[in-house]
Amino acid sequence: MKQVRIHGPDDVRLDEIPEPEPGPDDAILAVAACGICGSDVGYAKLGGVQGPAPEPVPLGHELAGTVVAVGDRVRGIEIGSRVALNPGAAGFGLGSGGPEGGFTPRLLVRGAGLGKSLFPIPDDMPFEIAALAEPLGVGMNAVDQVDVQPGEKVAVLGAGPIGLSAIATLHDRGVEDIVAIDLSETRLEIARKLGAKDTINPKNDDLWNDLGRLHGTEQLYWMDLVDTDVFIEATGSGALLKKAIERGGNGSRISVVALHRQEVPVDFMTVLMKQMRLQGAIEYPERFENMLELLARRDLGPMITHRFRLDEFSTAFEVAKSPDAGAKIMIEIG
After folding, report:
1. Using one digit for the tens of pLDDT, what is the confidence trace for 267-286?
2. Are residues 177 and 219 in the same domain?
3. Structural domains of the chain, count
4. 308 has which bridge partners?
């Protein structure tokens, strides 16, 4: 069978591998849909999760499918169940440096017997929608970490899939004053569909002047600030993060969910004087069902802008490298 694996920097191949056999605590999943994550693009550029690895590195961790086999000690998971996957729950780094990855027709889910990896989805939920549970969880956790409340003013920096997931979460929780910031008009249009009240494209507009116009301004000592309560930083741009720290208002919070692979200098005197909160956010809420429940009550379909077959993966991956091309790139397998 086929599986997408990294062989070195910018060397991603669709390899032929043996079909998996489940151990007593494992399950086999017939993968129906698997999304390309921004981290997949980053891993490919590096040649592995942290750099070139001694063995090929399988890709793919945003997925859903049907259980087709279970090990002898697995309980509570039935063959034929339609499920979404929590890729990190069992501790094997699925699609993120571990021995398995989701861009394949048959996936070995190690440790499925622990009951933390596979979650049933409604019969009427398309697999591609269920596959959004993983990126939705990352955006939802970014919101959770800074305790956003209805009535607060939020700026989401970056309207890729994680930023869009944060916007969908905010809107679902009754937060209305959401501003999405991105360089892609396609992504900003999706952001508006998912709940952003306003959008700013820094290619065409002055980001901080426009954000001040929308959220108001304030002055603290000698600093001219925007009156935004919360920033969700989903761009990975160190320069933009530094600017948010500089221009964010008194008592504002910044949730950093993007991967910043380069060091970002922080002016902690500014953080101190504004009593600003900087918060990292990684992975998902403790309860994975939260994402599936949101997907059941709200249409996040606009996030999926491209669909490709597994044998078209090289073309799909090139699209995923271009932020202007769209948002979530979905690989249809089953």
Report:
1. 999 999 999 999 999 999 99
2. yes
3. 2
4. 331
